[in-house]
Design goal:
Its cofactor is Mg(2+). This is Histidinol-phosphatase. GO terms for molecular function: histidinol-phosphatase activity. This protein is an alpha+beta fold. It has 8 helices and 15 strands. The strands form 3 sheets. Strands 4-3-5-6-7-8-9-10 form an 8-stranded mixed beta sheet, with helices on both faces. Strands 12-11-13-15-14 form a 5-stranded mixed beta sheet, with helices on both faces.
Length: 257
């Protein structure tokens, strides 16, 4: 099925109405984890509530999986997957590299998605017409760089500290093979693959709502997104995205050691 750009823009606007007024406002931050710091804000909760209301009104027969408000009807063929603020740590730190992620799966496959960064006025999205960008500089179709060699690649990961034990050793060796490595930016780094500015993102331990929306944006721009083992990324896990199939294969081999 196709998702109209009008509906995609409506989702982005509804989320922005809840997130932007609370960005850099020093609002209250709660912690979802007893033994670590996993922040959640009123902006997270209210943005997801607004997104869910739009989806329920437009597609009442579809299921929804959201980070903050749980799941409903996820046995349906069509399921929307929502992360109202991907990068809450950046959000509460005043850094504009967070984004709203909303993706649609059909029979488990991600077919459409959006990443909205309202502070910078950017919208990255994919539907049946391909992968697109709207924002400063004007609208355009998204296309990955044609990088095929690790030695010429720019790599992002949230932080190498997420790689544990032997996986950290393999990551460190992998990083030595690329031209440039940078950390942080969460969903923004994945969007930059589709935009042709970043070549590889390797992030372990992602949840479905961290990646589903980004899969069709990257794939329809020419990239590849899988788990580190090469499996489907829709259920989350250790996720590897790359600008070209050749670069993805080289990165996957390097991460395996």
């Amino acid at each position: 099925m196709d998702i109209s750009i009008d509906f995609i823009r409506r989702i982005a606007r509804a989320a922005a109405a809840e997130t932007l007024p609370r960005f850099r406002s020093q609002g209250a931050v709660a912690n979802k984890e007893a033994e670590s710091f996993d922040p959640v804000t009123e902006a997270d909760r209210e943005a997801e509530r607004a997104i869910r209301a739009l989806i329920a009104a437009e597609y009442p027969d579809h299921g929804i999986l959201g980070e903050e408000h749980g799941s409903e009807n996820i046995s349906r063929r069509h399921v929307w997957v929502i992360d109202p603020i991907d990068g809450t740590r950046a959000f509460i730190s005043g850094l504009p590299v967070w984004g709203t992620l909303v993706g649609l799966t059909v029979d488990g496959d991600a077919v459409a998605g959006l990443m909205s960064q309202p502070f910078t006025g950017e919208l990255f999205y994919a539907n049946a017409s391909g992968a697109h960008y709207e924002g400063p500089g004007g609208p355009r179709k998204l296309a990955t760089r044609k990088t095929t060699e690790l030695a010429k690649a720019t790599l992002f990961t949230t932080t190498p500290a997420l790689f544990k034990g032997e996986a950290r050793s393999r990551y460190d060796e992998f990083e030595k093979q690329v031209q440039l490595a940078r950390y942080g930016t969460d969903c923004y780094a994945f969007a930059m693959i589709a935009a042709g500015s970043v070549d590889i993102v390797a992030d372990p331990g992602l949840k479905p709502y961290d990646i589903v929306a980004l899969i069709p944006i990257i794939e329809k721009a020419g990239g590849v997104v899988t788990t580190f083992e090469g499996g489907p990324a829709e259920k989350g896990g250790d996720i590897l995205a790359a600008a070209t199939p050749e670069l993805h294969a080289a990165a996957m081999a390097a991460l395996r050691g």
